[in-house]
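Progress report, Aim 2. The chain analyzed during this reporting quarter is listed below.
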Amino acid sequence: MTDLVIRTLSASDAHLFDALPDPLGAREAHRRTRFRPDWKRVALRDGEVVARGAWWGGPDDPEPVNINWFDVAEGEEKAGAELLRSAPRQVELEINLPGGWRDDPALHAAAETRFTAARAAGYELLVERFLYRWTPDRGLPDRPGRLNFRPEPDDTVFFDALRRIHSVTLDAHALKAVEEGGLDQAAQEELDFFHWCPSPRDWWRTAHTPDGDLAGIHIPAHNPSGPTIGFIGVVPEHRGHGYAYDLLVECTRHLVEQGAEYVSAATDCGNTPMAACFAKAGFPVVRERVNFHPATATTAEL
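Predicted structure tokens for the chain:
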């Protein structure tokens, strides 16, 4: 087998990224995503592209947030692993998949090829997630009317609510943050993400029971690709009443009132209560995502 060549692309050779088949439909999934040419890398053997990866971040981010497009030709798992292993920035890897991929032999095989390459590069499975997309033809869910929603300008109120919410959580990213740095880190990571989103701070809402108790929070947001459910969370002492659905409905309606023509969302596959809320509110699963995180880090440069 001939030697492998790993290349970081530029505007002049960005077309090489498109020289690999797309069995998992990543191109359609990323049609709203803007990638920087110099954050794309390819692995070539005999001049043919056998693996590719696109690192992604917001338009003002100096460093990528994650890898959210990764493809490997059949039988080239080692090339895919080297593409990831030799990369400058070791960040989370997202592998986006069509819904029902496990039941289609060709899609399942393509996914497993990518998983094998990721594990060989030192990445570990973090979580599998459902990706949702609400559109107007699904109809706007009615407000249950059980909670009162208020704007809250003080970030410390949200920070305290997030600490309480993440003290008992099914969210894999929050659990990882708690393990690494405690509840403060988990809450701060959420706040940092909300501020990173290019949507107004005054969209954030606290939710209260008729008695005035804080029941939870919801964050309608725009990420760089469009309107999304940024966060839904109920404080532990008010769980068991189905309030997550009330928060989701209010968050969705807020985005639509701000002009959203669709609303994206995601939740961990293991978070069955939240998945049930999305189904009830008319959010169909449109794709799935498998998140890997690097077991080790490197400071090499692209």
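Residues 172-196 form the longest helix (25 residues). DSSP finds seven helices and twelve strands in the chain. These observations will guide the mutagenesis work planned for the next reporting period.
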